[in-house]
Amino acid sequence: MSQSAEVTAVNDQPQQVKTNLLGFSASKLGDFFEEIGEKRFRATQIIKWIHQMGECDLDQMTNLSKDLRERLKDIVEITLPEVVSCQDSTDGTRKWLIKVDGGSCIEMVYIPERERGTLCVSSQIGCALDCSFCATGKQGFNRDLTAAEIIGQLWIAADSFGQFEHKAPRRVTNVVMMGMGEPLMNFDNVVDAMNIMLEDNAYGLSKRRVTLSTAGVVPALDKLADVSDVSLAISLHAPNDELRNQLVPINRKYNLKQFIDSAASYIDKMPDNRRKATVEYTLMDQVNDRVEHAKELAELLTDLPCKINLIPFNPFPGSEYKRVSNNQLNRFRDILANEGYTVTVRTTRGDDIAAACGQLAGEVNDRTKRQERYKRKLDEAQPVKIIDG
Ligand code: SAH
Q: Which fold has domain 6-77?
């Protein structure tokens, strides 16, 4: 993170690039104020203004002196991504199309349920992992979202429900990092944004209500265990390496055993009452939905404290798979339940506005360098070890 404002030349005129404070966690904002010779507690004041009161105009931050506000205005800004459109489904699901710097758009979805409201947040523009059944993967990878662009999504949803004015009949009670992108491939920004979600002076969400979902970037998951203990969802989708190599290509680098071991150590560090991962398994007709697959999955997960979430495949334009049949879905669920697992089936929400799991596509510009970027992103996920293929 660059703490000091950079200077660039536009039309030969030097221009100050202002630091966007939106994505600064409390500790980073404290460091920022110290660096500019101000007291650390200013960080708490600003965090409260932005993330509790929804105020992004420095002039309105009346507990800061006028001098300080003027000084800050020269070097910082509080800028949100732009909402392009917002659609409501007949079932109450809301989907936003959000434009970020560079012109690409990401999608974000809010799913209301009786007791909670879950916001599904994107972490990247596109995705480099290229899972064969995911619409985002088909878009290719453009870039990581900044911490400001990630937390900005929660700000936008909170604002749209009137949460900042405390008049919200609906609110965001849970956040899942299950939108576009692989959160562990954008480690630092995702951790910063999650810290703001958890921060008491910001959104104050509990760790159990913030979930990171990953397809298995094992070294990054190991690293996450050192800095965070938010809830963990692991996207398995196959009970053996042979099948998973085809569906989730990162499995060729970090196989199932490595992934499950890493997830087990992650949740092992959690307090007793939270020590459980969620296993996500997207069911595709005649691909991974057979009785043998269910039995193999039950066997595979023996040593992992977990609950299993079955997700019927959601089709998207150009997708090559079919949704699992209800018979197969029930049979699959019953086998796992009989083996003693807690199994839930994710109901498809927001079908009429293409807001369901795996359907988020946004508008990813500049996909031409996809292969190059893909390779670079994967190379960054050290240590590199090809397990198979
Ligand atoms: N990259 C992360 C988070 C994004 S995907 C991950 O893989 O976990 C969030 C969840 O939606 C994952 O479990 C993913 O496998 C699932 N998903 C993706 N495409 C889907 C589709 N077409 N139908 C149903 N679920 C899908």
A: DNA polymerase; domain 1 (1.10.150)
Query: Is 358 a pocket residue for ligand 1 (Cβ < 6 Å)?
Result: yes
Q: Which atom of ligand 1 is nearest to the CA of 177?
A: 3
Tell whether the model's pLDDT for residue 6 goes beyond 50: no
The rounded Å distance from CA 177 to ligand 1 centre is: 10
Instruction: Give pLDDT, residue 309.
Output: 97
Taking the alpha carbons of 202, 207, 208, 209 in that order, is the dihedral positive or negative?
A: positive
Least confident of 41-50, 293-302, 362-371: 362-371
pLDDT at res. 27 = 93
pLDDT-based confidence at residue 386 (cuts at 50, 70, 90) = very low
Catalytically annotated residues: 107, 357
Instruction: Work out the average pLDDT over 53-63.
Output: 96
The rounded distance, in Å, linking the Cα atoms of 78 and 148 is: 9
Q: How many CA atoms lie within 13 A of 173 on its CB side?
A: 10
Average pLDDT taken over every residue of the chain: 88
Pocket test for ligand 1, best of 213, 316, 320, 347 (most atoms within 8 A of CB): 213
123 pocket-lining for ligand 1 (C-beta < 6 Å): no
For the chain, the domains span: 6-77, 82-379
Question: What residue owns the CA closest to ligand 1's atom 17?
Answer: 358
**Nearest-CA neighbor of 266 among 232, 303, 299, 237?**
232
What pLDDT shows up at residue 318?
86
Q: How many CB atoms lie within 10 A of CB 164?
A: 16
Distance in angstroms (rounded) separating the CA atoms of residues 112 and 173: 10
Assigned superfamily of 82-379: Aldolase class I (3.20.20.70)
pLDDT digits (tens, 9 = 90+) for 235-259: 999 999 999 999 999 999 999 999 9
| Residue of minimum CA distance from atom 15 in ligand 1 | 235
Tell me which DSSP letter residue 230 carries.
-
Residue 68 has pLDDT above 60, yes or no: yes
Strands 105-112 and 94-99: antiparallel
Residue from 352, 365, 366 nearest 109 by CA: 352
State if residue 213 touches ligand 1 by the CB under 6 angstroms criterion: yes
**Which amino acid appears at position 260 of this protein?**
I
Residue among 238, 258, 239, 257 nearest 248 (CA): 238
